[in-house]
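Sample entry (329 residues):
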Amino acid sequence: MPRTAVNIVTYNSAATIGPCLDALLEQHADFAVTVIDNASTDDTVTIVRGYEPVTLHCNTENVGYAVAHNQGIAMTDSEFVLTLNPDVLLKPGFIAAMVTALESTPSAGMGAGLLLRVDNLTDETPTAIDGMGVYMRRNMRQGLCGDGWPVESAWKSSRQVFGADGAAAFYRRAMLKDIALDGNCFDPDFFIHKEDIDICFRAILCGWHGLYVPQARAHHVRHFRPGQRQRVMSDDLRRHAVRNRYYLMLKNLPAPLFWRYAPAIFAYDVLVAGYILLKERESLRAFAEVWQTREKMLAKRRQIQAARQIMLDDLHAWLSAGEPQQDNV
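Predicted structure, serialized as tokens:
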């Protein structure tokens, strides 16, 4: 079995999957590639079949991002797993840099590279930093480290981060096994959106952390950005985004910290509710879905909190660090 399993979930990804695979297959590392297609109706499957080293698994329906990645993880038994979006183009040495970094940092359960934002995968000149890992705010809203910073402001050295953005997240399989619930690494109830943040949160609770690796670079076409919610996100995706915010808190946030952060959480929730009532009434269903599945989420919460290895003060330090800052050099 190759040392790294690269899993790509596709859904009508014909516009980008070719360049994504071209760049991936030029990596000099010990890896294998699996594409899990969620019933695409465009030419995605035809394009992937043209790449012989790639294993293709076709679902007969769209089972969601989380379930599809669980399928890919179960198909392999590698030391590392890279979940790669089809709109990401890896630069040379990405996988090798990640393997080296995680080898030298046993406490790191996942690696986050330097993602640079482009408008399409043929662009050679990024417009800005897309992300250098993820962080959490006290109001339980996730953010991308360095989002929108000038490219030259990227952190030059490795550092601990809350976790890795699922667009190109490099996971240690031992960590994925450690945080799995009922055999699932990604929570299938999330379907899509914030499922990678849920992974990060559970990893932190179990004593792991993310590691930013500046030598691992990639270009990313970021379709879902702040301020573009109405224009680029479907009704279903917006509903999942709202619902999964509450799933994330129900499962992962210890009660003492919930009450500590309650003013910030409630203040943001007032904004969420107002926005939904004024501009996105179709997302009201999200609240009903949270209520209907509360017992299921609370059962998961009991498992997660029982397995918690981190002290509350240490978790508070992760959640109260504030916006990431540029280096002063």
